[in-house]
Every structure is written in structure tokens, then in C-alpha cells.
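Thread: Modeling a multi-component assembly for a lab meeting

Hi all, long-time lurker, first post. My supervisor asked me to bring a structural picture of a complex we are working on to next week's group meeting, and I have zero experience with this. I have the sequence lines for every component (771 residues in total). Could someone generate the structure of the whole assembly? Inputs are pasted exactly as I received them:
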Amino acid sequence: MSATVSTFEMPRTISSQRRTKDRLFSIALWASVVIALVPLLLIVYRVVRLGVAAISVNLFAHTALPASLPGGGLKQAFLGTAMIVGLAIAFSVPLGVLTGIFLAEYGSGRIAAVVRFTAEILLSIPSIVAGAFIWALVVVALGNFSALAAGIALTVLMWPIMARATEEVLRLVPTELREGGLALGYPRWRVIMRIVLPTAGAGVFTAIMLAVARGLGETAPVLLTALGNDFVSTNPLKPTDAVPLRVYNYAQSAYPAWRALAWGGALMLLVGVLVLSVTARMLSIRQQRRMR
Amino acid sequence: MREIDVSGLSAWFGSKQVLRDINLGIERGSATAIIGPSGCGKSTLIRCLNRMHEEVRGAHVEGKVLFDGEDIYDPRVDPVVIRRRIGMVFQKPNPFPTMSILENAIAGLKLLGRLPKADLQERGEQALRAAGLWEEVKDRLGEPGGRLSGGQQQRLCIARALAVEPDVLLMDEPASALDPASTLRIEELVTELKDRYTVVIVTHNMQQAARVADWTLFMLYGEVVEFGPTNKIFTTPEDQRTEDYVTGRFG
Amino acid sequence: MPDTRRGFHDELGALQREILEMGEQAGNAVQHAVHAVVFRDSEEAQRVIDGDDAIDARYLDIDQRTLETLALQTPVAADLRLVSAIIHVNLHLERTGDQAVNVAKLHLLTEDLPGSDAMREQIREMGDLVVGMLRSAMEAFDRRDLELSLRLPKMDDPVDRLNRASHLEALKLADDPSALDWGLHMNLVSRALERVGDQAVDIAEQVGFLITGEFREFTDASHEVELP
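Re: Modeling a multi-component assembly
Sure thing. I ran the full set together rather than chain by chain. Output:
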């Protein structure tokens, strides 16, 4: 091969050397994808296989029973989780969304920087730390474990997600829309309420859903704050059961019946998180399309 | 008579000065074009006329802008009120995406207190007519504003600005983002509008200024170079820099 | 498609109407001036001279407005050719008005001198011909009639013949000094009228340019021109 190749002599086909390199690289990429996916697929497979067996009316309709008795269920756990997550949503949505609005619309000052930093930190603290903190604060103060405490603990974990996600979505709303509102003589708050928020619309909802998806699955904080309960509890100030909690307990038990229920609970958690995540993703895609 | 009287206006972005001691008088019922090379401060100037400049963080303004006898920069004056009398149309059409065409047109009217629905409807129609858009949208007022073409969206934004019946309409390169046919329509619209409103239009297209404006202001590096009747600026300008700019020798 | 430059096109229409009116005025001026000579009407001659101010004022107005149109509207294509044609025709008509004034003045200079009916008849005929040429040229302009405009040069031939004939006719007055004086002045009149004919041909050339986009000389001082 000569050292200089004129354009007229450029080979028309890719050299075999290059082709091999391309191929090796593609193989390496695919391999890493497969390696990453395999554990996920194995987990899903196992949970589905073992959990499906436990799906029955009993799972939802019956409360916990001693292992010796047949027909036990997770009803109180599902209801407990619903109450805990419900409380968490009630606290974290206003807190998170309003913080997100603050950060997006007034977010260039020092206060905003501090708030943003705090949210970032809270996003990454181990959830058991949040649980311990709330235990010390609420459980000790009230004198007993409760759904309320669990709800507050989840709030600590959920609101930063909502705040940051809301901020991101609001930032995506083009500045010219805000300017259009201001130029019409809209006061700032009205620009936010009537123009920016509605435009971001689904995006804020997505932010909430992502936060809830996290809250659903957290075990550690619930462990330290809710205690657990074999019966359905309707009092937020009293201990309650929760699905992750129950799964934790049953999975370690000696009784096959309980272990089966644990798989069932795990499957339901998986399904819940999956549904929320996928819906959030789809909504966000639609939202992005609208912004263009 | 003078609608807007600017005296000693200077503006900064942070520590960078972009307008230097501007003095300018704008006649009522006229169209004034502001021309000049990129970065000369024309957009900043027009944004100072409705106090939009200060919405940018770190931006500030000195000097006086008298509108209807009052200084809009007086600390007692609420910028929100000013903007209802001095409206603005932007370079990129910005209809509100969650509102329908009619809702967009009357978006500014909601601020004026509770008006009966029929009134709102009628004023929306008037505004759309004034903007030359009514015939094209009268059968689809409920559709989202974003479905219209670029030129139609811009006319919708003009309708939105006109619906509140401002005294002055500021236009910041309103046709820059549009195709030539839409551009000419907007220009024709401006020549109609200047009978009822005072129009100030920033444009980087000199021929547009020539076609549309009664008065033309030429700016350079944040300063006024020349201000006069359009036909004078384009036939016998006084300042050599103006001559060089309009003949295309620079900028 | 709606006309998006209605204001500009309205102005073009207005300018065109102005030019046509000016054509009328100039044509009338020539006609009245000739009439003054033929019927020895000094008052009419004076009226022609006074009336030229109006033509000049219109000339200035049209000139200013076309300049402004070029500066402010940047016309192109047919619009540009129209503006250019209007500028040229404006000038030709103004000169025509000046020729009418010359004719009128020439009468006033010789109003007391005896004349020859034969020459007066020639002048009358020339007057009719050139006014007709002017009117035809303006009509061709108004209607954008290329064929009509191409006939103008031919219409000039009888005018040239009459012009030459008037020289010969003047010589016949050699015996009477004052009549000769008058006759020589009348030669100037026929030259002025011949110039009006030339202006009309020039206007027709502008019509040709306006319609075809090509400028062709219909008559050339130095050589023959073939016309379709």
C-alpha cells in the first residue's frame, strides 16, 4: 500500500481490518447489555413464577392468619401500604410540587441554591437513615409506632424526587411562554398558575408518579416506623402492616404457606412499581412531543 | 403629539452596558422602526419601553420613559399595569399551548375583571378580525392554538395583544421567523394597525422598515445615530454611518 | 392570493393615473399652442405659457414620488419596469410641455407680422399629427398595447415630410422681409412640433420596454431600425 492514496484510488469497500474491529466492538456492546439484563430478567422470571401461584382471591380478601390455619392473606398489608403511601402523597405532593415551582421560577438566588442542595442530599441518603430519624422524632414523641410516622418517613424520601422532577419539567417550558404572559400584564403568580403549570401539566403528574413508585417499595423506613399489624388498621396513629414489611417477615419464616404469600406480595410490589414507571415514562414522552 | 418620550435611557445586563443615554420621541398613531446591526441594542430598547428588560436577572435601567405624561420607571408605578397599555409581540410566535384559539385571543382580557362571556367572545372576534385572522379560524375557535401555521400563530399573538386595546404595540422582529408571504401579510397588517395604535417595530430587515414605518431610528453600539422620517433616512440620511448601513456597506 | 402589498400597488396605480393626466395636459398644451399660431390668438398663447407651471409642478411631484417608491418599496420585475417607464415618460412629457411653451412664445414674438395661410395650414396639420401621436403613445401606455406602440415611428414620417416642406414654404416668402421673418419663426415652430413627435416615439419605446423588458430604439439618429 502506498503511503499516500489519491482520492481516485480510495478503496470502495471497507478494509477487512476495520470490519473486524467494528464487529468486535458491536459484540462487546451487545454482550454488556445482555449481562446487564440477565439478572433483571431472572429476578422478574422468578418472582412471577413463584408469585403467580399465590395469586388468589384470598391474597386480597383475607387478613393474616397463623400458619397452621389455611386461607391467610395480605389484605391488611395492602390496606396498610395504601394508607401509608396515601399519607405520604398528601404530605409530599404540596411540599414537593411547590418546592419545584419555587426552584424553577425563582431559582437563581442563594436560598434556592440551598434548597436544591438539600433536595439533592436527601435524594441519596440511605432510606434507613430517614426511617431512624423519623423514629426518633415521631415514634418516640407519639409513644407508639404508626402509619403516620411511616407516611412522614416516606415523605422525606419522596418530596425531593417530586421537587427536582417538577423543577426539571417546569424548566422545559419555553421562556417565551412566560414572556408572553408577562407582556400581557400577567403578574408572576398568574403566569405560573395559568400558563407554566398547565403547559407542564402531565410532567408534574409524572414527577408525582415517579416519587410514588419509590415510596411503594421502601422497606427500611417502614420497618422502623410502622411496626406491623396482623389486622386491618384504620387509625393512622396506630401501628399498621405494610406489604414490604410483611414480605420481609414472611420470607424468612419456616412455613411454606407464608413464604408463598411473600412471593405473592413481592409480585404485587413489582407490578405496582412497573405500572407506575411505565405510565410515567409514556406520559413523559407524550409531554415532550407536545413541547416541541 | 408624543406618545412616548424617552430621555437619558441607559440599560445594563449586570455590569455590561447595552444602551447609552437614549433620547427619543415617538408620535402617537405612527409606526416607528428601529434598525441597526446585531447587538446594537434595538431589542433591549424596545423591552425597556414596557419594562420587560428588568425581568432578566441582573438587568437594570436608568433614565426616564414618559408614557402619557408619566414616567413608567417611577418606583410607584406597577410594571404589570404598564404592560396592559403597552403590548408586545415577540419574534417567535408564542401562543399558549393549553389554550384554544379563542382562549388565546382573550387571554389578556381575563385580567380586566369578570366580563360576561358574550362580551369576551365579541372582543375576541374583534381582535381576531383586527389581526386579519378571523376568516381563517372562525370555524375552529376551539382548536388548540398550536395547530396553526407559523404566520397564523403570529397573527394570533397579535390578536391577543390587541384584544386588551393597548395604546402602544411593540413588535420585536415579528416576522423574522416567518416565510416571505407571511412576512408581507404581517407588514400589511402593521400599516393598517398604525391608524389606531402607535406601533414600534424592531427589524433587522431594512426594506421592511422602509416599507412599513413612518419614522426610522438607526442604532449603533447602544446609541441613537439618527432618527427621522423613513423616506429621509432612505433617500438622504444625514449621518454617514446611517448611509453606510442602509446601503449595505456594513452590518 | 391576496395582494399583500396593497399600499404599494395603490401608489403605483396612482402614479400611473398621474402620468396619464399629465399626458393629457401636455397634449392639450401643444394643441392650444398650435391653435394660437394658426388662428393668431395671443390670449390663448399666453394661457399656454401660464399653464406650463402646472405641468412642471406635476413633473416634480411625480419625480419625487417615484424616487421615494424606489427607496422605500424596492420594486422588482414589472413593478420596477413600470417605475422606470414612469420616470422616463415623465421627462418626455415635461419636455413636450416646454415645446408647447416655445410654440406659444414664437407666436407672441410674431403676432404682428403677416403670415402665409399655406404655412399655417402645414402647421395645423403637423399639430394634429403630433398631438395624435402623443395621444396614441399614452394610450399604448395605458393599455399596454405593444402593437400600437410599434406603429408610432411610422406616424412620424408625415411629420418629417411636413417639417421639410415648411422650410420650402418659408423660402417662398423671401420677397417680403417681415413675412420671411414670420416664416423663419414658423420654421422654429415646426421644429418644435417635430420634437414633440420625437418625444411621442420615445414614450412608445418606453412602452415597449415596459411590456417586453427589452429596450429597443424605435428610431436611431445614426442608422436604420428594423421593427417587427
